[in-house]
UniProtKB/TrEMBL annotation:
Its EC number is 2.7.13.3. Residues 367-459 form the Histidine kinase/HSP90-like ATPase domain. It is an enzyme of class 2 (transferase). Pfam families: HATPase_c, HisKA_3. The chain crosses the membrane at residues 12-39, 191-213. GO terms for molecular function: kinase activity. SUPFAM superfamilies: ATPase domain of HSP90 chaperone/DNA topoisomerase II/histidine kinase. This is histidine kinase. It catalyses: ATP + protein L-histidine = ADP + protein N-phospho-L-histidine. The lineage of its organism: Bacteria, Pseudomonadati, Pseudomonadota, Alphaproteobacteria, Hyphomicrobiales. Keywords: ATP-binding, Kinase, Membrane, Nucleotide-binding, Phosphoprotein, Transferase, Transmembrane, Transmembrane helix, Two-component regulatory system. PANTHER family: NITRATE/NITRITE SENSOR PROTEIN NARX-RELATED, NITRATE_NITRITE SENSOR PROTEIN NARQ.
């Protein structure tokens, strides 16, 4: 299994180089053997055919009608002896035999073989079937003991003697010749055959290797890009899971904060307007108002107290409503939003707020506009209540949909770790900003406090 793991770890190009090289070598070896064998057979057959044609043209006219004669007469045998022993043919021929179909040697230049019968081998049977048989090998037949004793390869040829009018093989001429130069021709044929096969195989493998290496490089690049994409998607998935968890926590926190807001509003109504109304209600049941003996001046004084309590209750109810109801800001720009909330704070607290605005009039989502208004409103209230309203400042920057709001003061500052989780101000701001995908930051110390809200460009609802 280890070798399989190591093999799979290799690139496709290296795998092809190894396996393709082995297959190419095997194919080259097999094809080389086949081609070399075919070329050797062709060279031997052509050489044998040329010699057989020459011998047939010289010897065939001397032979009698082989269908009528079973043995050669003395005159024919002597003519063959003289013909085969002279000239170039005599120098090349090592032995000569004339076979009858039953395996009997009718004539041979080795006189001791004449009249003897031998088993008909495959080469002789093929020749009697009408085919020329040529072999280049060391003699191995029983009747070829003398040729075998030479210890070298000879050209062995079986040439059928055909009847002129019927084309039937009536006898077979077998002869061995030295075949000078044939071994060199075969060696050159083998060499060039192997060189041609090796060259073509190398070119074929080289072209395939170039294509495979290019494809492998492309695949590797795509694999790396895909791996990077998978890593990126995995990181985004982990981030999305974190954001989902954060959103769930923000939703839970928002529900708790809403409940706390409602309790706060209830407490404000109970401790303020409700007390004044309850006081007025008690004074309405006073005997001074129903007793006819009560002086008009005393009755008017009592009614004045009742009207004053009711007026105070109405004033406190309006103040509570003013803090809950937003002005119409859906169509307002950041400049208008900042000016409205700052002016409202200045009128309420009778303090000054330094304002800096730098915007390119981007189109913002309504939820972001509400968040900006509430952020500045709550931050200024905190600066007034906890920082004494010393050198309050608002700085708003918006370019290309990205928003950054800073609210600062020069008060004493505070320790952020000491802020209670149930506190509505800072915790509520952070939860509101987190729910919209923004960032909330506090910088505080002896030199004062700065609260920062930042948003990246966000999609605007239609």
């Amino acid at each position: 299994m280890n070798w399989l793991i190591r093999w799979n770890a290799r690139s496709l190009a290296s795998q092809f180089l190894i396996m393709g090289g082995l297959v190419s070598l095997g194919a080259m070896f097999v094809i080389g053997l086949i081609v070399t064998h075919l070329i050797e057979d062709a060279v031997i057959h052509n050489s044998g055919a040329a010699t057989a044609l020459y011998v047939d043209s010289v010897v065939a006219p001397l032979l009698p009608d082989m269908q009528k004669e079973s043995l050669l007469d003395e005159a024919t045998a002597q003519a063959l002896d003289e013909t085969l022993g002279q000239g170039a043919l005599g120098r090349r021929l090592v032995s000569f035999k004339l076979w009858r179909r039953d395996g009997t040697i009718l004539y041979s230049n080795k006189k001791e073989l004449v009249g003897k019968a031998f088993p008909v081998n495959g080469k002789l049977a093929q020749a009697f079937a009408g085919s020329l048989v040529a072999r280049y090998e060391v003699a191995s037949d029983p009747e070829s003991a003398e040729e075998r004793s030479l210890g070298r390869a000879l050209m062995e040829i079986y040439n059928p003697v055909l009847q002129p009018w019927s084309g039937e093989a009536v006898a077979v001429l077998e002869f061995y010749e030295t075949a000078e130069g044939l071994e060199d021709s075969l060696a050159r044929a083998r060499l060039w055959s192997w060189l041609a096969v090796a060259g073509l195989t190398a070119i074929f493998f080289l072209v395939l290797s170039i294509l495979v290496f290019r494809g492998s490089r492309t695949i590797e690049v795509q694999r790396e890009a895909l791996k990077a994409r998978v890593d990126e998607l995995s990181a985004l998935l982990a981030e999305n899971r974190g954001l989902q968890r954060k959103l769930q926590l923000s939703s839970q926190r928002a529900a708790a904060l809403n409940e706390t807001y409602l309790r706060g509003i209830g407490a404000d109504l109970h401790d303020g307007p409700a007390q004044h109304i309850a006081y007025a209600s008690l004074r309405l049941d006073s005997d001074l108002l129903v007793d006819a003996a009560t002086l008009q001046e005393t009755r008017e004084k009592e009614l004045s107290w009742i009207r004053s309590s009711l007026a105070e209750a109405m004033k406190e109810i309006r103040d509570i409503c003013k803090g809950l109801v937003l002005p119409q800001i859906e169509k307002a720009s950041i400049t208008e939003i900042v000016k409205r909330v700052v002016e409202a704070h200045q009128q309420k607290t009778n303090t000054a707020v330094d304002t800096t605005i730098d915007e390119d009039d981007p189109e913002l989502a309504p939820a972001l506009k509400i968040c900006i208004y509430r952020f500045i409103q709550e931050a200024l209230n905190n600066a007034y209540r906890h920082g004494g309203g010393v050198q309050q400042a608002v700085r708003a920057i918006s370019h290309g949909g990205a928003v950054r709001i800073e609210v600062s003061d020069q008060g004493e500052g505070f320790d952020p770790t000491q802020v209670r989780p149930a506190s509505l101000g800072l915790v509520g701001l952070k939860e509101r900003i987190d729910s919209l995908g923004g960032e909330f930051d506090i910088r505080t110390g002896e030199g004062g406090t700065t609260v920062i809200m930042t948003f990246s460009p966000m999609e605007v609802e239609e």
